[in-house]
Each structure stands twice: as C-alpha cells, then as structure tokens.
Amino acid sequence: MANEHVLVVGAGQMGAGIAQVALTAGLRVTLVDVAKDAVDKGAGRIRSGLGKLREKGKLDEGAERAALGRLTTATSARDVRDVDVAIEAATENEELKKRIFQDLDAVVRPGGVLATNTSSIPITRIAAATKRPDAVIGMHFMNPVPVMQLVELIRGAATSDATFDRTRSLSQAMGKTVDYARSPAEDFASLTVEFETDDGTTVIGEATTSWSFVGAGLRLSAELLGPEYSMAWNSLDSPLKLFFSRAVQGQAGEDLVEKQNAEIGLMPVVAGEAAVYGYEAEDRHFVRAFLGREAPELTFHDGLDVVKLLMTAYMSAEQGRTLDFPPQGLAAFVPAVAKGTWKPGP
Length: 346
Ligand SMILES: NC(=O)c1ccc[n+]([C@@H]2O[C@H](COP(=O)([O-])OP(=O)(O)OC[C@H]3O[C@@H](n4cnc5c(N)ncnc54)[C@H](O)[C@@H]3O)[C@@H](O)[C@H]2O)c1
Fold this sequence. Notes:
Strand order of the largest sheet: 3-2-1-4-5-6-7
Shape: elongated
Number of strands: 9
Strand content: 15-25%
Low-confidence stretches: 179-186, 222-244, 253-261
CATH topology of one domain: Rossmann fold
Bound molecules: nicotinamide-adenine-dinucleotide
Largest sheet: 7 strands, mixed
CATH class of one domain: Alpha Beta
Distance between the termini: 30 Å
CATH architecture of one domain: 3-Layer(aba) Sandwich
C-alpha cells in the first residue's frame, strides 16, 4: 500500500479532504480539477488542513513537509501516469462521471482500482462506462473527510472481491475504519414468539429487532449532521422522498442521498409507508390521548413488555436456545451487541 499513487479527480470540498487523508497516510497523490485555479484552491485547502493538524500537535513539521512533498496537481486526468488507485470526487453528474471514468480506464494501471465518491449515482451505471467494471467501486467518504472516520464501500453488480479487499485496505490505511466484528454498525435479529391469547388459542408471532440505531455505523455517519438529518434518513418519511430524482434542481451535493440500492431494485420501497402500515392512525390516536380525549390503547407498560421481549430475543440468540418468557436474569441483562462484544458465529 505504501508508496501507491492515488489520483484524486475533483479538488472541491470532498476531493481536497480525500487527498489530504491519502497524503497523511503516506501515499503519493495527484489532485486533478478542470482549471488551474480550482486545483490551486484544492491544494490550498490541503495546506491549511495539514497546518491545522500541526497546530493541534497531530502532525510534526517534518511529516507535514513530507506529505506536501508527495502532492502533485494537474488539470487533466488523461495526463497522469502510473496510477494505482483513482478516487473520483467531481461534481455529482452522471454524464460527467461516466466521461471521467472513461479517462480513468485509460490511466489506471491494470489491476488498479477505479473508485467513485458519488452520493447517489448507481455504481453499476458508472462502471458500465469502463472496460473493467470489476475494478469499479463506490468509496463514499463523509464530509468533512479528515474528521469523519466512516467510509462506505459500495459494490456495483460486477465489482470483484479483489477490488473490494484492496479498497478496504486502502480505507484502513487512510485511517477510515469501522471494525464491524467488534462494533457492529447494524445487526438484525429475527424473533419468533409463541404465546397464548386470552381465549386459549396458541399463536406464533414474528418480530425483528436491530441495534443499529445506537450502532457505530450510524453514529459515525450521522453525528456531525445532527439528529434531524438522521431522523429523515432513517425514518419512514415517504413517499420515496429519500430516493431523490436524477434530475436535481440547484447545486448537487448532500441533498443527494445514497440510495442506489433502491433504484437498481435491490431494496423494496413502499410508497406512503406511514399510511400503509397504519402509523398515521396510530399518531392521531396518540394526539387524542395526549389531549385527554381518549384512553391510550398502549401504555408505558406495553412498551416495557416489548423491550423485554426484544431483550429476550438477544438472550436467546446468545444462548442458542428457545427461552420461556420472561427468562431469569432479564432485568440485569445487557446484550453483547450493546457492549460491542457480539461475535455471531458463521
Ligand atoms: N459534500 C458532501 O457532503 C459530500 C459527501 C459525500 C459525497 N459527496 C460526493 O462527492 C462528490 C464531490 O462533491 P463535493 O461536495 O466535493 O463537490 P464540489 O463542488 O466541492 O467539488 C467538485 C469539484 O469537481 C470539479 N470537477 C468538475 N468536473 C470535473 C472534471 N471533469 N475533472 C476534474 N474535476 C472536475 C469541480 O470543478 C469542483 O472543484 C460528489 O459526487 C458528491 O455527491 C459529497
């Protein structure tokens, strides 16, 4: 990995940040933008970013000088040679990115990686502009790149394991790492409950639970953006509001949310989920109950019972057996996934 040559295309907010973390990781970087003033501005951002690190004592003067010594700039990707990994962070426009990827196809060494930082364009479509879709991958950094620890790696339909592994190593070398084995970003537990109704009928119910809302992945990607963004991102806000159209009005940027999976059919999307699942009626009932006009159908104790059931599900998963409800020791039980020690078996 050391001494690899990384080509960063686009010297804006994201490109300059990506170039900076690649430089501090000891890599050689060429930063490209369409015009000299744009690329100079990007290089200026990197200088000031490294300067701040030095002022904070996170980088000594020698390391700062060495990092800047590994930076080259250019105004066309086509002029750059011997590229091991290209990371594209140009303006969010599909046609533009496809043209850039044709150039990258020509300048990246055989066996190299062609990564894109796109927020919303399907990797498979960008990859189709090249003759080596197996080498194309999404490498979605968070803004501001030098501060945010998370990078999301997104496979296209043809992305090879070798490309994925190499990109993951590169992300780790750049200090961007989430060890999902130790701090799960998202777990998904499925629970089967057998119970008897008031009239004596045996019923089998199913539920799912997830620790993701406190997990590392969500926290790392949302902490700087605040709860409102996180809520919109993770909520049932519909219909399809989160799956932005390709025809973006105004400046492209963070208003494009990464939902390629939905667009290429890998994820079911229910329009108007809140109404379909009855949440609207539930919300109205809540308001009426709050105003004192109706007795609440569900109380605090119902909520507590649900939590107890879900905790029992975690306990059951850890012990690998069916448990009678409520199991012993439930009140003091803290799931391994909450402690960050959960190691699910194969
Ligand atoms: N800003 C964010 O919060 C954020 C977060 C994650 C991902 N992204 C994605 O990163 C990419 C870049 O976003 P940004 O916020 O840095 O935008 P930006 O506008 O700050 O920078 C984009 C740069 O690309 C340059 N550019 C345009 N065409 C080019 C070409 N042909 N060759 C080289 N450079 C070219 C522009 O001149 C500009 O300097 C987008 O795909 C965006 O969706 C942005």
